[in-house]
Specification:
rod-shaped; eight-stranded mixed sheet; Acetylcholine Binding Protein, Chain: A; Methane Monooxygenase Hydroxylase, Chain G, domain 1; alpha+beta; about 30% strand; about 325 residues; 2 domains
Length: about 325
């Protein structure tokens, strides 16, 4: 079989010409991929990293060897060496929302090309990709997010290359795929057309639906800020005359909330809308600031009421003295 394939590649095949080009027919390419691992969605850079097996299938009648050699059936296949890949035509697929990518080549290039006797070709490669994902953080961290894979042909228009999802399992994921901070709810697929000044190109979309797990934020954000607010309320039970204690406690809680809010904001992108976490932090800061302002009002009221209290006490003392004198005169008269 090796000799047959080598002879086909050397004598009857030109990898610079796509299948069907001679008859002006479009080449149909079937695609699927498998997700091996995935990073958390990064809010600051609006992207995520994923490791996938990308697979493409197409029919290449020029390399069919079943008819010419009756010893082989349709299911017989030959796995080509990675050194032979450059001799074959491969679809010019690219990922539109890719920000960065890596081909794996340890120990050898992580690529597979398998030729069936009928002429169908399976091409697979392992990729690590950093993909852009526009996150909507309005309800952060109680949000759901949607990210996409968008595949398209780079140079061949719809008249030359048609890209379709495979009929069964176009997108797969390893069992119990773990995405830090998120849960992968569902994956859907669809078709699109990429229009540009150079023509219309076939494209595919895979949409990933995520739900954020809020446990981390409950422990690291909500609970500490709630405790700081409760701590600021302790000043209500401290005597109004204990000025250093109440002022120190009020300033401490205000500074703590300000620092916590600033540290958290530094980890978030500078978006133009208000996030749910911003409302929570602002509310907590308002409560602790209100507790500090409350003591200022209480202190003013206490200082204003002291002269009146002293006057009342002085009047009571004088009245008591008069009553004592009257009582003494009454006793003497008896």
């Amino acid at each position: 079989m090796h000799l047959i394939i080598s002879q086909l590649l050397e004598d009857q095949y030109n990898g610079e010409i796509r299948p069907g080009a001679v008859n002006s027919e479009a080449t149909t390419v079937y695609l699927n991929f498998r997700i091996n691992s995935m990073s958390a969605l990064r809010e600051t850079s609006m992207d995520y990293t994923v490791n996938v097996y990308l697979r493409m299938m197409w029919f290449e009648p020029r390399l069919a060897f079943q008819t010419a050699h009756g010893d082989y059936t349709e299911n017989d296949a030959y796995t080509l060496s990675h050194k032979q890949f450059s001799k074959l035509w491969i679809p010019d697929l690219f990922i539109k929302n890719e920000k960065d990518g890596k081909l794996h080549d340890l120990v050898l290039p992580n690529k597979l090309m398998r030729l069936n006797a009928s002429g169908s070709i399976l091409y697979s490669q392992r990729l690590s990709l950093t993909l852009a994902c526009e996150l909507d953080l309005t309800r952060f961290p109680l949000d759901n997010q949607t990210c996409k894979f968008i595949f398209a042909s780079y140079a061949h228009t719809l008249e030359d290359v048609i890209i379709l999802w495979t009929k069964e399992n176009p997108v797969q994921a390893i069992k119990d795929l773990k995405v830090p901070e998120f849960e992968l709810l569902d994956i859907t697929t669809g078709y699109c057309i990429s229009n540009s000044s150079t023509g219309a190109y076939a494209c595919l979309e895979a949409v990933l639906f995520f739900q954020r797990q809020v446990n981390y934020y409950l422990i690291q954000v909500y609970l500490p800020s709630l405790l700081v607010v409760v701590l600021s309320w302790v000043s209500f039970w401290i005597d109004a005359d204990a000025v250093p204690a109440r002022v120190s406690l009020g300033l401490l809680t205000v500074l703590t909330m300000t620092t916590q809010s600033s540290n958290f904001a530094a980890r978030m992108p500078r978006v133009s809308y208000v996030k749910a976490i911003d409302v929570w932090m602002a509310s907590c800061l308002l409560f602790v600031f209100g507790a500090l302002v409350e003591y200022s009002f209480v202190n003013v009221l206490v200082r204003r009421s002291r002269p009146m209290q002293q006057q009342i006490i002085s009047n009571l003392v004088k009245q008591a003295q008069v009553n004592i004198k009257k009582a003494g005169l009454a006793v003497n008269s008896l």
